[in-house]
Design a protein that fits this description.
By secondary structure, this protein is α/β, with parallel strands linked by helices. Helices cover about 35% and strands about 15% of the residues. Strands 7-6-8-9-10-11 form a 6-stranded parallel β-sheet. The protein has a 5-stranded parallel β-sheet with strand order 2-1-3-4-5, sandwiched between helices. A two-stranded parallel ribbon has the order 12-13.
Length: about 375
Amino acid sequence: MKIIADTNIPFVKECFSSIGDVTLTGGRDITAELVKDADILLVRSITKVNEELLGSSSVKFAATATIGMDHIDRDYLDRSGIGFSSAPGSNANSVGEYVIAALLALGKKHKFVLECKSIGIVGVGNVGSKVADKAAALGMTVVLNDPPLKRQTGDDKYRSLEEIYHCDFVTMHTPLTFDGEDKTFHLVDDKFFGSLKESCFFMNTSRGGVVDTSALKNVLDAKGIAGAVLDVWENEPDIDNELLLKVDLSTPHIAGYSYDGKVAGMIMIYEAACRHFGLEIKHSIDDFLPAPEIPEITIDPSAADEQTIIHDTVQSIYVINRDDFNTREILIVEPEGRGKWFDDLRKNYPVRREFQNTKIIIEDNESKLAKKLSGIGFKI
């Protein structure tokens, strides 16, 4: 079988070579001509998989090694009898850790304590649930909003947007949809921002189109909110450079880019491909994940206050400020090269392991500090 794969899927050639001949290419370089005689297409989020791409191809199975599917025309694939798989939940923990790193970075920058602050989570699927658990572990008050889940379950834990508006932080974890009663395109608009309190910090790691860029720039200019963290942007990779200057933390759509999450997504679509073609599954995630660079961290609880220790521990694994710095370097690139710079930051993203790979050595494993570190994902 001939397999065309996004080169940004780690170990995809090593893994999928067990079922066919793999050709690697950049996600934006996948064309109808390239896939016309392929049997399998493997993408990440920047390749639009639709009739225009596959209409003249021999592709029998397509997969995205991501949780998001707004770049996939499922109706076309179903009509055409093309098998499909995504990787739901594969990078949920990675995004959860990103949000925690961002919260801690904001706390250090603006000199506030996270414990007892409130965080409103809009969208409580795989990712939003992880964020909720980790934020609660830090002692934050969590307010959940998810109208579809509210209708499905009738559970009162899902609250209205009006309650979200009163939170100290609001973070978006919805899919991008363009119609229906739960449409999320520009869900966050002037009215949304006008309802937030001035001390609120806004965060988006879902999809850029969930937020109206002009509305966010306007509210930041007017100091209608305290600040913002953006990992996703409208019109990627050609992002709004004015907005880049206004946010507290800027990153190039990498919240879900932990190495663990990317390899997990690859294995999920590999297993799905094997099932689709009735082939033996020969690989597992353990075949590809290396040992962590930092297997242990010893903590002295008396060295600093609790939040500082947690912040520094997280920073030893994931330096979110470095991603912010690298993203802002777009501003010194010639305008015609900025989109490529954004894409290259993603393509060449360094290995970032998840907290679960590191064990914390601390004298009292039952201490409040130890429980918080465990709650955000570290082994104790």
